[in-house]
Amino acid sequence: MTVTATSTSIYTVVNTPVTTSDSFDLAFENPCDDDTVSTLTLAGQTDPTANRYDGQDFVFNYVAPTATPGLCTAITTCQSTSPSNSVIGCPEIVNGKFTLNYDTSVYEDETLIPGTYTITYQVVVGNS
Amino acid sequence: MFTYVTTPVTHSLCGSFSYTVLEADDTEVPTSAGDPTTYNTADQTFTFDSDNADLDGTTKTYTIVAAFTNYDTAETKETDFDVVFIDPCKDPFSLTSAAQTGITDNFSETAQPFTLTPFTVDPSRCEIQYSCDSVTKDGSATNELDCASLGLDGIFNSDPTDGTGSITATQAAYLDGSLTPGVFTFNLVGTVVDATSGVTNESKPTTITVTLVDPCDPPNSVTAPTSPAFADQSYIITDASKDYTHPEFVADPSYCPVTYTYAVTDFTDDSSNAASAVTRADKTFSFEYGADLSPVSPTA
What is the distance, to the nearest Å, from the Cα of residue A117 to the centroid of all Cα atoms in its chain? Predict the structure, then answer.
């Protein structure tokens, strides 16, 4: 922003006025990068129903967290699966859900043994 | 002329006369370099020449004594005549005005002195008094200054202020418009005090030029503020409006008005339209934007 100051007479002006300029910068800051400005409100998640290796899709519907200000968005990325399992991997949430489908083959070869697997996601505030 | 008459026979055997001219106190009038009177015996003429002011308005009586040149015991005859010495200042031989040195000031608040350059009068002993007749500004009548403004002491009576005056132009007068820049002409008249009204060299005019320079046309400088100086600003998009009032520039002289013009850098929003996050009222900028994150990277 540039400010130009001009000084001259209040009476009849004969000579060229004197001018001087100065300026200052205006830096815009991204509110999504500032944790003192942005907020993230997590929502409770509902575990998918137990699967019995039936070869049917079972879907986890992700209840997305709420990020503020509204120009920001919550970015969810899979962090880990515990216990680690190569069949499950670390499924990313796409369009608010992920879908798994396992049949007995993984049971039989023991690559996915029965049990409870906890998938952990990291949620951060990012640009929309 | 003296003559003599003889009877019964008219003749001129008695010869010529010799003349002696006497002052009232019976002292003889000089025959050369007299003051005020010289009698030239060769051609029997009188010369009156004096710068003696004491003679002004006086009358001197002279006596001419005629005697036979060759018969100094013969009867003499006398006759008187008066010479009136008129004060020459009643009708001076000449009166020449003098150009005056003007005054220039830029509303300095300081009394600017004026010293009158006296006129030349012949005889020089004639007293001249000076008075202000009128004041004009740029050739027209004005009430911004009047004769009293100059305070001229036009009577030379051995005062320290004889022939002097001064003009003080104040900033307040400049600002309130009661005294504005321009060329003022004080019209003065120098008058021979004892001159008879209407004589040629009774009085002469002169002028004093007072030039008041506009101190703001242009001012000496305009300086960007330093304490505080302009400060860079930051604004978090979507925040409430944030204000910044820029400090004032300083003109020299400080009373010269300063006006501002502003240049604000816009940006392109996410819809490829020109957008601005800056509004301004007087010297206060307001920053507010929340439509998108388009201005994040650049510095406007």
Answer: 24
**Residue at token pair 């510095």:** B299
Residue A49, chain B, CB below 8 Å: the answer is no
Instruction: Determine the pLDDT at residue B300.
Output: 42
- Please confirm whether the linkage preceding A69 is cis (ω < 30° from 0): yes
* Stated pTM of the model: 0.73
User: What is the count of residue pairs from A and B with beta carbons less than 8 Å apart?
Assistant: 154
Mean pLDDT of B114-127: 95
Tell me the longest C-alpha to C-alpha distance in chain A: 101
At residue A127, the pLDDT reads: 80
Sign of the torsion angle spanned by Cα atoms B145, B150, B154, B155: positive
> Which residue in the set A5, A19, A28 is minimally distant from B295, CB to CB?
A28
As to burial, measured by CB atoms within 10 angstroms (0-12 exposed, 13-18 middle, 19+ buried), residue B162 is middle
Q: CA of B266, closest CA in chain A: separation in Å?
A: 10
What percent of chain B shows pLDDT beyond 90? 86
Write the CATH number of the domain with boundaries B94-212. Answer: 2.60.40.10
User: Could you tell me the mean pLDDT of each successive run of 10 residues in chain A, 128 residues long?
Assistant: 96 95 95 91 90 93 93 94 96 94 96 96 88
| Nearest-Cα residue of chain A relative to residue B181 | A11
Closest CA to A103 of A58, A48, A49: A58
A27 touches chain B (CB under 8 A): yes
Q: Locate the chain B residue with the closest alpha carbon to A17.
A: B218
Please name the residue of chain B whose CA is at the shortest distance from the CA of residue A23: B230
Measure the CA–CA gap between A14 and B262, rounded to whole angstroms: 24
Domain spans, chain B: 17-86, 94-212, 216-300
Asked whether the beta carbons of residue B290 and residue A69 sit closer than 8 angstroms, the reply is: yes
* Joined tokens for residue B108: 């300095």
Sign of CA pseudo-dihedral B91, B93, B99, B101: negative
| Amino acid in position B172 | A
Please answer yes or no on whether A28 and B260 come within 8 Å at the CB atom.
no
The whole-number pLDDT of residue B72 equals 86
SS3 B213: coil
* Residue B138 Cα, gap to closest chain A Cα (Å): 13
